[in-house]
Structure formats: structure tokens, C-alpha cells
Design brief:
This protein is α/β, with parallel strands linked by helices and 366 residues long. 46% of the residues lie in helices and 18% in strands. The strands form 3 sheets. The chain has a 6-stranded parallel beta sheet with strand order 3-2-1-6-7-8. The protein has a 5-stranded mixed beta sheet with strand order 9-12-11-13-10, with helices on one face. β6, α4 and β7 form a beta-alpha-beta unit. α4 runs parallel beside α5. The chain is globular.
Length: 366
């Protein structure tokens, strides 16, 4: 089961669970727009009564969390949480969830939560989304990676959506399709003939319990070409590019069972980085070419992304200030003679000012 928090998270979880997920929002209107098996509304009161939305303000999401705290803490155990980092509801509620997990002494492996966070594309999305994401990335998300109390963290980027001009619904389906490929790895191990290695349900739960950022992809594998080149060419465009692998997992499907030895090149690639991957090699007679599903866990905090967001946010702020100045402020041109002005200052102070004037003259000659 998955839990969708906020508008973006609810849509993604609904697709993954075919309309049977649990969705969470502060807006009753938004909750009714998404098919779900269960709807939970966070309560936030103002002087005008219950709010209809979070207005991109994470403080509202954080306040709403208090009204549904116990429900959510129980629901997320061992499940997947979907949210965006830019809005108010998902950002605020997930901040509270991550801070709660960070304070725990120990979380059983089977109860570790996988988080999927959708990051905005700073070149095209609202500055509020960018600012919220910056605070979330370098605050609760970075802290959660340090504590080790979460499961895998999957960072989805909206960049591909805007660059390729993909409609939102189609993009959401692409995201879930990619995640579903990863989640179905142990099922393939049960359905197909095993040739080497093994990934069962327990192995997969253990892998998903690791508190690292997860990058996964799937592509046709050429046993005669360097694996490193193939992997780099087929990184998942929906996710952030991975850092150096700490742990890895791969599932290799072969159309011909006599090709079993061809997977050793993949092991060699990871061995160079001192990584011993969990793996399985299966016989799949229904495919024509070898197919590999790869997952890389890395621990690098998304500082590069924060720096990128900061640069773009700063540029947007400078542009906004310049426009405001141009619109509301008229600056008259002032003709100032530095020597005359300096002379006035020293005369008012009762000094001759020869030394100061000499310095000004020398500066003027430089």
C-alpha cells in the first residue's frame, strides 16, 4: 500500500495502487478529485474556519499533521509515501514525519518507510516551490539520511517533464511505471527460472530498508559492450543522476539460458568500486534481448541540487527587485565632483584638508 500526501503525492499513489491508496490533504476538494481507498483530511483552523488548501505554505502542512499524527505514523510503517517538496501540504507533513522518524532510537527493517519526493524544475516552476524545496532538501531530508531511520529515498525531478513538454498525467504514469519496474523485481524472481544468484522478498525488503537515495533504471543489456558505458547512457531521466554506489542490486533476464556467464562483466563493474551487489540472473523466454534492471543506492546529500536551486532563486529575486525598482522608483542623475565635496567636508571639520585632497587627486590619476 502507498500513501499520497498533498496534490502531487495523491495522484502518484493513486496510479500505483489503482485508486486504492490512502491519500492525505488539508483540502476536502482536492481529496475528492483523486480516486482512493481511504481519504484523510488534516485539520487546520483559522479565523475563517477550516482552510481549503495550504497556499504553498509548509507551516499549514505542519500544523495539519498534528490532527492526523497517530494515523499517519501507523500507516507509513513498511509502506511507500509519495509527496512533492515544493507545496505546502506535502512539504509540511513530510517534514514532521521525517523529524519524528529521526527522533526514534530504532526502526525495525520491516517498518522502514520508502519516500518518493517530486522536485520542481527551477527554470519553469514558481519561486515559492523552489524556496520550499531548498528548505526541505537541506533540512529534514538531509537530516533523515543521517539518522538511518528511513528506507530508500527516491528523488524524482520535474525537469524531464518540462524539457520534453510531457503532459502531467502522462508524466505521472511514466514515474509510476518506472517505480513499478523496480518494485516487481522479487516477483520476477518467483515467476522465472533462476540461473544464478537470488533476490527473494526478504532480500528486497532488506534492500529497500537502507536509508540511501535510490536510482534505478532498466535497459537492454549488450554482454559484449562495457557495462559502465551502457549504464551511464541509460540512467533514468526521471530521477536525479546517482552518486557513487554504496550498495547495488540488479536483475538480469536472459532469453537464452546458455548466456549465463555474461553477467560477470556487471559484477566486475561494481567490484571496482568495492560494491558487492545483490543480484539474480533469470531465464525469460518471452524476451528477444537480455534485459537488466539496476538499482544504485548512494548517500550523497542533494547539495548540488540545493546550490542549483539557490542560484536560480537568487537570480529570480534579483530580477523581481529590479522590476520593482524600475516600476516604483525614479532615480535622478547626480553630477558630483569628488574634490569639491571632499573640500566641503574638511572645511566643515575645521581642517585644511590638503592631505585628503592630494589622495583624491592621486586616485583620479590611477
Amino acid at each position: 500500500m502507498s500513501i499520497g500526501i498533498g496534490g502531487a503525492g495523491s495522484k502518484l499513489s493513486s496510479i500505483l495502487d489503482n485508486g486504492q491508496s490512502t491519500i492525505v490533504d488539508v483540502s476536502g476538494v482536492e481529496l475528492e478529485r483523486v480516486p482512493a481507498g481511504r481519504r484523510i483530511r488534516g485539520v487546520v483552523h483559522s479565523s475563517h474556519g477550516q482552510l481549503r488548501g495550504s497556499r504553498k505554505d509548509p507551516r499549514i502542512g505542519r500544523e495539519a499533521f498534528q490532527s492526523i499524527r497517530n494515523q499517519l505514523i501507523e500507516l507509513i510503517q513498511g509502506n511507500i509515501v509519495f509527496s512533492s517538496t515544493g507545496g505546502g501540504t506535502g512539504n509540511g507533513i513530510c517534514t514532521e514525519l521525517l523529524e519524528y522518524l529521526a527522533d526514534l532510537q530504532d526502526v525495525p527493517l520491516i517498518d522502514k518507510t520508502t519516500f518518493v519526493f517530486v522536485l520542481p524544475y527551477p527554470e519553469k516552476e514558481a519561486s515559492d516551490f523552489i524556496e520550499n524545496s531548498i528548505d526541505f532538501l537541506r533540512g529534514p531530508l538531509s537530516a533523515s539520511i543521517d539518522t538511518g531511520n528511513t528506507g530508500n529515498i527516491i528523488l524524482v525531478s520535474n525537469a524531464h517533464k518540462f524539457i520534453q513538454r510531457i503532459p502531467e498525467k502522462a508524466y505521472n504514469e511514466m514515474i509510476i511505471g518506472s517505480i513499478d519496474q523496480f518494485l516487481k523485481i522479487p516477483e520476477k524472481g518467483e515467476d522465472l527460472e533462476q540461473l544464478d544468484g537470488n533476490i527473494d522478498a526478504e532480500d528486497f525488503i532488506l534492500y529497500r530498508s537502507k536509508p540511501y537515495i535510490n536510482h534505478f533504471c532498466q535497459f537492454h543489456y549488450d554482454p559484449e559492450a562495457p557495462f559502465s558505458t551502457q549504464l551511464e547512457a541509460n540512467y533514468n531521466p526521471l530521477l536525479l543522476k546517482p552518486g557513487g554506489a554504496i550498495e547495488a542490486l540488479f536483475l538480469l533476464e536472459l532469453p537464452d539460458s546458455t548466456l549465463t556467464s555474461k553477467f560477470y562483466g556487471i559484477l566486475d563493474y561494481f567490484a571496482e568500486d568495492n560494491v558487492l551487489p545483490t543480484y539474480a540472473v533469470l531465464h525469460n523466454p518471452n524476451i528477444e534481448k537480455p534485459l537488466i534492471s539496476v538499482s544504485i543506492l548512494y548517500s550523497r546529500k542533494p547539495l548540488e541540487l540545493v546550490e542549483s536551486f539557490n542560484k536560480i532563486s537568487g537570480r529570480i529575486k534579483r530580477t523581481r527587485i529590479r522590476k520593482s525598482v524600475d516600476q516604483y522608483v525614479t532615480l535622478s542623475k547626480l553630477d558630483v565632483d569628488l574634490t569639491t565635496e571632499a573640500q566641503k567636508v574638511v572645511e566643515d571639520s575645521g581642517n585644511t584638508g590638503d592631505d585628503i585632497l592630494n589622495v583624491l587627486k592621486r586616485i583620479g590619476k590611477l
